[in-house]
Each structure stands twice: as structure tokens, then as C-alpha cells.
Amino acid sequence: xxxxxxxxxxxxxxxxxxxxxxxxxxxxxxxxxxxxxxxxxxxxxxxxxxxxxxxxxxxxxxxxxxxxxxxxxxxxxxxxxxxxxxxxxxxxxxxxxxxxxxxxxxxxxxxxxxxxxxxxxxxxxxxxxxxxxxxxxxxxxxxxxxxxxxxxxxxxxxxxxxxxxxxxxxxxxxxxxxxxxxxxxxxxxxxxxxxxxxxxxxxxxxxxxxxxxxxxxxxxxxxxxxxxxxxxxxxxxxxxxxxxxxxxxxxxxxxxxxxxxxxxxxxxxxxxxxxxxxxxxxxxxxxxxxxxxxxxxxxxxxxxxxxxxxxxxxxxxxxxxxxxxxxxxxxxxxxxxxxxxxxxxxxxxxxxxxxxxxxxxxxxxxxxxxxxxxxxxxxxxxxxxxxxxxxxxxxxxxxxxxxxxxxxxxxxxxxxxxxxxxxxxxxxxxxxxxxxxx
Length: 438
Fold this sequence. Notes:
Order of helices and strands: HHHHHHHHHHEHEEHEHEHEHEEHEHEEE
Radius of gyration: 23 Å
Number of domains: 3
Structural class: alpha/beta
Shape: globular
Distance between the termini: 63 Å
CATH superfamily of the largest domain: Vaccinia Virus protein VP39
């Protein structure tokens, strides 16, 4: 299969089966044995369509002679693919965008006899109307964020920061990796990666962090297989930095830990010393943590399958630090999981209850004088500051403690930090640092 067909298959799976685009796309690229160039194109096409679905529909309403809702779903997917290439990509030959889309309509819509002709007519109309098509003016259509999500995000980040965040949500995320300083240095890793054809630049403010380009499949790099680095957004790494873990024989818990980035960051900070108890609810996720810890050679990480909402009596008041990155609505990682924007926010209103339950259970493990880190990858007050405030009301033996942050950030006294996409080249993220009183 070619890149366009793989992308179409992924879009169909997302629509019909509720699959996440990032997961199903990776599976289909492997299944279809795409080379690096086609894999990159399939990724761009699939993500681009999902990120711009409402905008593409805005164009289609102008190009169709009939009604948008009357289109066969697969025909609509094919038109989205073709229109995205025409309107949003400048290196795709227009003839290829049209002809390949018509071929896909023939193959995937055999019962819709008029599908190839319809696709051909609409896309050629798009080419003829390139300069006359009306552009969307609403934020919903311009950035393909439903109105209810926009209202929720605006209430958190404010109107002045909203559009910059929406732009970042639709941009391709950088490939960011953390150096395993237990095995190498940043300078040595840059040389190693460049020898494998990968470009690597130091991150702007996160130490021992690199921004990569021309990577291809990371798993195929010998530097990856030898455990010299791991993939992690600077925001997630920052949450572990805020714990200020010493190079010492301490005990740390990291719950809801898959795929393991925070556990790995803790192991690096502790330089392989102490004990890190890393867990997740599902066995297949636990396997990811274990595989990563083995590749990176962190023997001090102990991995288990555990429900973070339940107490662990034998660990109560035994841990020097506990990292609690709870399940959340994920509105901070829309650029990496673009489908999240279309999930109904009302279906996630019960999350704060679970988040608070997890935080209370994990807090019991913190010894007097120990540190508790609460984090999410979302931008919703009820899941962030709201949970922390509710926790403090029932946990008088804990208090917020100011965050020690890199110099690029303003001084922090509140003990809480919200990172907004488009401001520090990170995912959207929330971090709170709490201390158990002695």
C-alpha cells in the first residue's frame, strides 16, 4: 500500500472503531511496510486531516452541490485527504492529489458508483476555486476545535492565550528525547546520532534534552537500542525535576507510570541509586515500562501492576517521594493525539473524583518531610487546581511548596504551574508540588 491508502485506512478505523490515530497509524505503517518517506507522508496526511476536519468540511460545503451530511462516510474521508493535500500542502503535485483520491474512491467505495466521479469533480472544483474559496472566520472552523471545548479551554487559559494555543495544537510536535546520563553525555549522544543521519540540537531550557530531526523510526537507531536516550516531552521531565530527587538511597513511587518516562527521569536524577516503584493498572502498559527500564539498564526500577486508587498499607509513610500523574482528559496533548478534541467534555466530568481518590491513596505513602508531585497533561481547572485544593482541605498534614524552575520561567511561589502549548515548546501540562509536614 502507498502512504495515502494507509492514511485512509487509519482514518476509517478512527471513525468506525473509535481508534486513536497515533496508535492505529503506527500499527498500519508497520502492517503496510512503508518506508521512511511514505511513513512520514501517511503520518502527515492522517494527522493533518484529523487536525483540520472542521476546516475541511467548511471548504466542502462550498464545493459540493449537495449536502455534506449526505456524503458516504468513506467518500468524505477520501475528500478530506484530497482536499488537505490541495489546500494545506505545498509539495504535493495537484494531479497526484486528485488522481490518487479518485483511485481510493474506486477501491474503497465500490457500491457508490458515482463516488470516483464525485471525488474528481469536487477536487477539481477546489483547484479552480483556489483563490475564491471563503476562509473560515470562527475559531471552531479555523482550528477545528468544537465550541464546547473552546469554551472550556478559554475559561482556563484566557482569551489572550487561546489562539496561540490552538495554533500549537495543530502544529507538528517536535521529537524530543532525554539523554540517559547514566550511560552517556549530551555531547556524545549528539555525535552518535549524527553518525546515524539524525540531526540533534540541545533543547532551549531543559538540560540533557535534545530536539531531533530526520529520525525515521527511532527504534531502528542503534543509540536507541543501546539505551542512550528515551522519548519524553520536556513538560513531563519538568514534573520530575520539581520533585528535586537527590542522588541518594531513597524510595520513590511512580504510579500510572506507563510508558515509564517519569520513572526513567527519576532513575537518571538518582543516578541509578535507591529504589523506584513504578506501576500501572494494565499488564500491557506494565510491559512497556519493564521493556524500557531493561533497555535503559535501570535495575533500581521495580515494575508492577497496581490500581493506584487503592491503598498499599505496607508502604504507608515509607516513601521519600511519590509522583502521581493521574488519568486525565488529555487536553494538553491535542497536538500528539488530535482526536481528543472531538471527545465530548461532558463524558469526562467524573475524572476529578477518580483523580482525587488516586491522589489521596498515593499521599498515604509519603513519609513525614517527603514530597508529593501531582501532575496531569490537561488544561482544565477542575482536574488541576481543583483537585489539589480539595485534597488540601482533607489533608492538613500537606502543604504546597514553591517550585524550583529553569530560568526561562517566572519565579514560582504558588507551588503550582500550568504549561500552555505555544509558550515553552511543551505539551500542555500541570504540576503541583506538595510537602508532608514533619
